[in-house]
Each structure stands twice: as C-alpha cells, then as structure tokens.
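Subject: sequence -> structure tokens, single chain

Hey, anyone have a minute? Need the predicted structure for the following. Not urgent.
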Amino acid sequence: MDIQGWMLAVAILLPLIAGILVFLIRNYQARGFIVVLTAVALIVNSIYFLKLGLPTNFTPENQMWGTIITVLDYAILLFYIYAGLSLKNWLVLLFALTQIIPLAWWEFSAGASQKLTEITPAFMIDQLSVVMVLIISIIGSLICIYAIRYMKDHEDHKKLEVSRQSRFLFWLVMFLGAMNGLVLANNLLWLYFFWEVTTLCCFQLIAHDLTKEAINNGARALWMNSIGGTAMVAAMIFIYFNSNQTVEYLTLQSIIESGGTVAFLLLPVALMCFTGMIKAAQMPFQNWLLGAMVAPTPVSALLHSSTMVKAGVYLVLRLAPAFNPVLGVAVAICGAFTFFAASVLAIAQTTGKRVLAYSTIANLGLIVACAGIGTDLAMAAAILLIIFHAISKGLLFMCAGTIEHQIWSREIEDMEGLAEKAPLTTFITVIGMLSMFLPPFGMLLGKWVALEASYVVPLAAVLFVLASAVTMVFWAKWLGRLLQVTPKIGRKIESLSLSYSVPLWSLVAGIFAFGIGVAPVFDKFVKGAVGCVATGNVQNVVALDKMVEGWNIVLPKAAVLTDGSLAVVGSYPVWPLFIVFAVAIILPLLFITLKPQELRPVYMCGEQAGDADTDEWYCAADVKTKLQLGGHYYKGAVGEEAVNTWVYVIAIALLVIMFGVVGVSL
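Reply:
Had a minute. Here:
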C-alpha cells in the first residue's frame, strides 16, 4: 500500500481502532493516554496531507472493502429498524425502511451488484477535502481531549454508579474517522456509508445520558437525518437508471465535471443538496440540532464545529458546480432565510448553548447561501466561514461546558458576574464571542466577502444585511451578562485542568494566528479549495490571486473588470486592525478601575424600604417590590412560540419552490 493508502488508513481507521480500545479499557488514565495519542496522530497525519500532490485519487486494491461497506450499510439500517421498534418511534422505523428496501432492491434484485463494485476512484483528495480533514482532525481531536476530563466531571456531578465514559469516548473518537471518510469519499455508495455512520454516532451521543429527553432528542436527530439518507438513496438509484444502468455518474467527481449540463443529473443533485441541508440543520430541520443541546458539551462542540453539520455544508459546496442557475438561486435564498430566521430566534434564547446552536444554524445558512450563489467570491467566503466558524464555535462550546461545570447552570442570567467568579474562563469566552463578529478576526472578513458576493441575488443580500445586524444583538446581550461585575476583594483566577486548558488555549491561539495570518490562509487554503468548486462562469470569476497583498486582503467587486484588473471596494488591513483591537482592550484595563465607594444605590422611582443598601422599594399602591436586574429576551416578539409557525411555513415553501424549479428545468 502506498503513502496515500496509509494516510487514509490513519485518518479513517485509526479512530475506529482507538475507539474500540477506549471502549474496552476501563482505566481512566489509560483511556486518556489513548485518546491523546490518537489525537496527536490524527493532527500530524492531517498536516501531512498538505504534502501530497493534489488533486489525487485512491482506490483500495482489495475489493473486500466494498463488501465490508455494503454489509455495514445494512447493519446500520437494521439497527435503525431495531431502534424504531424499541423506542416505538415510527418515524425512525419509517425512514429506515425507506432506505433499506430500495437499496436492497437496487443492489440485489435489479442486478446492479456487480456493476457497483466497478465504481472508481473510491477516494478523491483535493484542496477542499484536505481543508475539511484539517478541521476535523485538529479541532475534533482537541474536543476529544477536552472530553476526557469533562465526562469524568459530568458523571461525578450526576453521581452515576456505573461509568459510561468508555462508551461515550468510543462514539466520539469514531466520529472523527467517519467524518474524514465522508469528506474524502468519491464513490457515492461509500459517501452514503460514511454519511450514515455520522448519523449513527450522532444518535448515540445525543442519547448518551439515557434520560427521556436525551433519548427523544436522539431519536429526532435519527429520523430527521434519515430523511436525508432516503433522499441520497433515491438520488443514486435515479442516476443509475437514467445513465443506461451504468455507474458513470455514481461518483462526486463525475457529477461535478458535468458542470450542470447533464439534464437528468439536476434532480439527484437537488436531492443530495437537500440531504446536505438537513445535516446542516437548515430550516425547517433545525430542531434536531437544537435538541442535541441536551447532550454533554463535547457532543455539542463536535457537532457544531468540526463534524456533522460541516458534513452538510461540505456536500452542498461540493455539488455547487453541478447546479444550474435557477437551482443555485433557490439554494441561496433557502440558506439566506435560515441565516436571518435563526439569528432572530437566537435573540429570545435564555440558555447559552441554545444561543450557540442558533448561531451555528445561522452561519451554516450563510455558507449554504454562498454555495448557491456560486461565484468564485461567494465560494471563497464559504470556505473562509467554514474555517473560522469551526475554530470559534469549537472554542465557545467548550467554554460553555467549562462554565456549566463551574456554576452548574446553562442559563445566561446565571452567568452574571462570571468575570469575578471565573475570570480566566470569562476571558477565553469573550475572545471567542468577539471573534464571531468583530475585526480583526476572520469571521467578519468572511461575512464581508459574502455580502459583496451576494449582489447577484438581491433578496439574499437583503437577508444577509438584516441577519448580520441582528447577530450583534444576541452577542452583545450575552457579553453584558458575563462582564457585569462589582468590586470585590480577593478575586482569584480559577485553575483549569490540563484536559480543559490545552484545547481552550490552543483554539484561542488559533483564532489569533489565523486572524493575523488571514492572507496566508487565503493564499494557501482558500484559493485552492475554491478551484475545486469553481462553477466555470467566466462572468463571475474573481482574480483571487490579486486579493492578497502581503498580510492584507483587498476586497474586490464580485466580478473582474474586462481588462483583467481588480475593482477594489475595500481592504482588510490586518495589522492596523489588530493594533486598534489591542489598544481598545488594554487601555480601559490600565486606566479605568471601579472602586467600591463609587457605587450608588439603584433608584427605582419609589420610596426606599429600609436601609440605604436595600434592594426593596415601595412602588405603585404601596406594594413592596424587590429590585430585579436581568436581560430582556423579547420572547413575545421573536420567541419560538411567536414566530416558529411562520418560519416553518416559509422554509417549507422555499424547499417546495427549490424542487419545483428543478422539475421545470428537466
């Protein structure tokens, strides 16, 4: 086996082997050692992918692997049937049957089994898949290291008599291998297999605590993602029978190379895009990801940053060259609506993890919208957002878990004054939050590039502007609760275990390193990845090479000028922005100090009851009222109960329109 084969084995099979080992070993230190060793191996291996001559393909010489994958496919689907029956969840059962029955008929009764073994190449390694492998292997590995101590604290708090840490780490570590296989797979049958493994891991991890709420939410994630699995099976069968029962178009590579010119491929492309949108929790399928918040925090961090939902946007982005213009616009509007609606709904959330969940859904919508727009500039924005969102959101979810284990609450109101109780955790959390919407960090650049690219779809542009404005509201509200402090004597910086501090500080370093080095990141990773998903529309091609000027990025108009020059509409000067950011943070800390004698009692427009430091007042009708301070969440205006019905109606209508335009185009 050549070097490519060994690297693929490390990326895909090593997590499976490590997962089995941590499942079998009951010693806490030994499990931790295996997880750390696996993490280091995955990180080193992912970096070594950069040394390959890209793009390149690989197919295992032994056809046994195809047989193994087929057997495991049916084993997973049979487990879904068992889960549906045992949980008495008929939706799980229904969508398991809608996969296994047509798949078995196609592979065995329709005489396709021999032909399906001839699909090559099995794996496609290019710049886009390498970017995804780096995200999965580096950020995912850090989350696994974080989980070592987190799950011990989690079980200690719950006072479990029998530890389930081994089982949890088995699914968590194996998840990384499944994701690596998914983003490297070219054979659609292999892609489908890895897709289902991620769904299985997701179900097991969400339901891990075995509470009624956890099991129900795990089942919801299972049946919703099984709808996507059904759509993918339908797409593969449709391709096979419309290509004269050949396997010519049963690879991602062949579909992409069709460039949207093969008419019959439009429907299966739309179906697979729909599959990706479900996995990315696009509306109206957002509830499976919101329900995942009941799981232990490492699950949330993994789902939101480097796995599961990133699989969804990866598939949509990968298929973008096969969109026709009408389908592209439909996908863009679906994504833009999710970006806007999820941002609005985030305002009304009182739980930190739900704010992060809605923020993730919103940003995934923005990435999907960029894939639908399909210009080079939009694709560059999508890849920038994938990279920077993975780093920031991985950090924020781990911070949320660390905070939860310090105050044993997920409520934002309970985080008031956290800067006094846990200043180190607060500092790291604030950095993560600021990196989501302020310069000089990469998320702002990605959104700016996306906004400039959106001119070709005006409705998407309007939704981008509105959603970006709304984003400021929920981040500012949360920051206010964290940073609200009163002077106290003897404030002490909390200590964090090595399993917490290494992942947290590594991602903080990543935020600053990638923010400062956004130009090299763009030059090394983004440009090459855009080349993998370029639509070939010359009118919308941007001279990406000209966007990098030293350490700075210049922002072009969405199309190159006729003489080949770049029409610049703005620039992103990295070092000046970082200097301004540093000054804005450091100067107030040096010169502004709140002293106890500067505090004054709150005036509530009524008669004070008691001493000067009382928090009770006589208000209207001489009713004694206790002072209460807290954030306002606008639940009556933008809460889930107030707007969800309209969100579902509009989201479903947009999906119907998307498939409608596909039908008209056939």
